[in-house]
Fold each of these.
Amino acid sequence: MELVRLEQALIGYGTPLLAPLDLQVSSGEHWAVLGPNGSGKSTLLRSLVGLVPLLGGRRTFPAGAEPRVGYVRQSYRSDPLYPLSTLDVVLQGRFGRIGVGRRVKRADREVALQQLERVGLRQVARQRFDSLSGGQQQRALVARALAGEPELLVLDEVTSDLDPAAAAALLAEVSRLVAASSVAVVFVTHEVADAAAHASHVALLDMRTGQFEAGPRDALLTADRLTRLYGRPVHLEKRDGRTVVFVESGVGP
Amino acid sequence: MTDLLDQPVSLADLLTLFGPAIAAAFAAAALCGYLGLFVVLRRVSFVSAALGQISGLGVALGFLVGAVAGVDPHQPTPLYLDPVVWALVLTGAAAALLAYVPRLRQIAPESVVALVYLAATALVLIILANPLIVQETHEIGDLLFGNAVAVRKEHLVELVVVAAVVLLSHLVLFKDLLLVSYDAEMAQALGLPVGKLELFLNLSIGVSVAVATRAVGALPVFGFLVLPAGAALVTMESVAGVMAFAMIGALVAAGAGFYLSFVESWPTGPMMVVCAAAFWPIAALVRVARGKRRSR
């Protein structure tokens, strides 16, 4: 089921970053958005979920209604002034489902605790959110995004604060979620290997060169396209069923 | 006569003499103590001070326009000449506009708040110098600096009604208002009506400041808004705890301030503020003690 479609969309803040683009995201798809720093990846995500109005074109919902969105933004820093527990923060993810003016119920708390369990943080549910490490906060924010039982999960560089093991575990958990349900995931990453391992579709973009391509992973995740995207020679190799990525540094012997 | 003055005043006498003023101080304390949670968390403490001055400006303008129109301000007046209506309209509009101050990127937000505060204060002083409202000058002075010993019944009624409406509506919308304050972008992604909720929150603060200022004065209103909630955030570890501390702290400050001003003949509004400020060193000591206990 197609959840959200951008048609001839102009994205940006006042000035379009790219030529009009088309993008369709459907249930069960797992999208990776790749591009260099400052290429417009976060703007694409924010436009997709309606946080940034389009400068042109249309954002439509072919299934009828706007999908429930779970969203984790890049480099979010919680305001330490707020005396919120980790559970309080994760519960916020359900407020869209609960509705304005309606009370949080026991069942909502149970769902929030389940999501904390999923990201391995149930034991810190009662701790103040701002006392958690950066990586723990990031996982809790993923739990918050999942707590609303989203149809579209949008993750903007959620693994940037995590150590490699925690990042791999989190992405694997998200992949399990996609496999077990019809949720669509769109995630921004700088790790081409993560895109190769987890995504079914990729979007490559760079506002500086005007490049935007979106489609199935195997068709787009090629050395030529990545070389053009990052401006450096990129090599892909298959080892034991996994894709290994080499980027030439341009220095050395 | 001397014998009469020397006799101790009973609680009944105190309540008879100052009942409306005591009730107004407690209503303002409960309302502002609660709203202080949002004022301090949203880092708009001085916005509330500016709103108090705007409220004073509204009242002064109301008196001036009424005087120009030949209306006695102490007799029933048409609604459009009522100083409280002027204060409500000006404060509500300013609250709605100042809500966008934290979003300013090119201008330091505190500069805009300072501009509003200074402009409103200067305008009040200029209006008070007008000979047409010379009789109201003392009343407006009380309004700005706080003189809770003389509260009119209609101002008390307005305050109680606004407090009841604001507190009940916040009881219903609390979780949504807190999320919008904490993470507006997440709230928007979840489909919550962020703009409407923010407008409601700011208007409820603006209207509350206007009616509370009219009843007990700008200085105690500013004190009730920022001091107990600030101390509560230093001391308490949960939102419910902060809310309870802020409301109870403001009520205690109102009661203690009123009592001390009565027995020592000190000015009422400033005494309430001093009592509210006393929570800060206590909160700091609690914080230090807790830190030491945890480090053991």
Amino acid sequence: MTILTLLIPVTLVMGAVGLGAFFWSLHSGQYEDLSGDAERILFDEDDKPLAAYPPGHSGTTKEKTP
Amino acid sequence: MMSNLTRAERANAMVIAGTGAFIGLVMAAAGRGDPMGAHGWIVLAFCGALFFVVGSAYEDPEPTQDRTASYYDDPTKVGILIALFWAVVGMGMGVWVASQLAWPDLRFDAAWSSFGRIRPVHTSGVIFGFGGNALIATSFHIMQRTCRARMPDQVTPWFVLLGFNLFCIVASSGYLMGVTQSKEYAEPEWYADLWLVVVWVVYFVLYIRTLARRNEPHIYVANWYYLAFILVVAVLHIVNNLAVPASLTGAKSYSAFAGVQDAMTQWWYGHNAVAFFLTSGFLGMLYYFLPKRAERPIYSYRLSILSFWGITFFYIWAGSHHLHYTALPHWVQTLGMTFSVMLLVPSWASAGNALMTLNGAWHKVRDDATLRFMMVAAVFYGLSTFEGSFMAIRPVNGLSHYTDWTVGHVHAGAMGWVALISFGSIYALAPVLWRRETIYSWKAVEWHFWLALAGTVIYVFAMWNSGITQGLMWRTYTESGTLAYSFTDTLVAMHPYYVARTFGGLLFLIGACIGAWNVVMTIRRMPSETPERDYPTSSESREPALPAAE
Ligand code: HEM
Ligand code: HEM
């Protein structure tokens, strides 16, 4: 069953990527307001993006102009 | 539709389509006399048509309004329509395959229409064509809505959607010509596989880029499910399709692995395809559209996150339950069996969470067939995962394996869960996308619901009966220790169930046709005004079913 020497590592790497993503989500405060997070998807009456970017803007969250 | 693209974007699209058409031409020339040549012509026609469509609108006026002030919904709309098209084709093929099993003469003596060729057209048509397009379209919708941000550009989503459909077309036409790697759910040959890798990587990058632009700090749980679907399917697809083409001018290739090694790779892929294609992405749909439609937040958001990580970490170890009692080492089988049983916990957590969300809103479920689609989907999800965990136990599998019980399990999941949640989501989504107050005909949604439910129940019960009968007949011995029944005896015993299955499938197919018609009519009916959202409704007067305050 030499194939397992490929499949098990590949699976472990996928698991590690998942674990990494999980820790990232923990540390970046993704789980701080769970009930609010669950509610907020229900409010989008106007069905528009929250903030419009000025033309020519690269569009990443960090650079957002007020 | 083209008016939403700038000149530069139109030019980009034409370069991509032109490159595709050129590749098609090369394939057609290099693969002369081989199915690959025919595929070359198909690629050329597909990309050439796109080139022409974009090119003929190239000079049209450019968009003037501020595009960042709205979501980009054109690819979602087209994706939904394509998904419904594949639903009708794929399920139509399913009914034909089912009829062939009951009445083998329905092959009409042609090579292309033999069971072995049209069966994968059914499976790929429904899983990838219908399911895949529904997943891609809803993911475009959900990622923008939950991020409160528009997609980063307008060419990439088209590339993903149309590129994926090119893959589906090459795959299905290949089966009819006899092109197959003989790996279930991974039948397409090497060049189609390579193309899918390109499309899939672009899809993943598009998703991440949209998340990076989000204006809402929290990443809603549905996005995690979709991301897992995209990422894991990419890895599985690449590993399982490692193969060496017999020649670069033909469609034949040889797998990099042999014997039981190949079988293990195939079912490591196959099971995770079930997990991450047929489950994870559709759970994303459920976690978004069910709360939206019920107008209440998910019962336990914490549980939805926990079950996500549970499913992600457990599922990848369960594939070997497809290879019980084979040359696969015993401990690997046991590993798969153990994880399969553990899987029941996060699976039922999701199903229970969905049903608890509806607890207290049963009047809405009663009045609104769209919501009922989603509720019944959650029930079938719970049912098929329970059944799956049970069938994964080795002695149980000794009875169920090779029988129609497996096919019954498959369709409890595929029709009851995957198709119903997709239809429910499409009905919830269509009025929002096309800015209609409601779906064209709520009565047609009711009809579709009952046809789909009846079809699924008939199908699944027929296969349970057939499978268990078959399994028991195979293991019945006479007093002298010989087999009591010949193989033909089992076929005779199964025939009535095959007829019943065909009938159930036909009901399901009629429902899907009604659904496609209803969505098209929703688009065609011009609204008197353009409302911002729709109401679940059960009355012709298009009043909200209940006051919003309920
Ligand atoms: C109109 C409804 C449908 C009918 C009549 C139908 C019929 C069939 C038939 C006759 C087979 C072959 C069984 C065999 O080889 O013994 C099959 C296999 C399969 N179908 Fe369907 N089907 C339908 C809907 C669907 C849907 C909606 C999905 C997925 C979303 C689906 C997924 C599959 C899969 C995965 C298999 C392979 C099962 C296996 O290898 O164990 N089917 N179907
Ligand atoms: C806890 C979850 C699940 C477990 C443990 C599980 C387990 C199993 C087992 C033991 C088999 C039979 C393998 C064999 O004897 O060959 C099987 C087949 C299958 N299951 Fe599930 N199942 C689960 C959920 C689902 C769901 C939700 C779907 C959705 C559509 C699904 C689709 C399939 C398909 C398509 C096959 C047939 C594979 C083939 O032979 O072609 N399963 N599953």
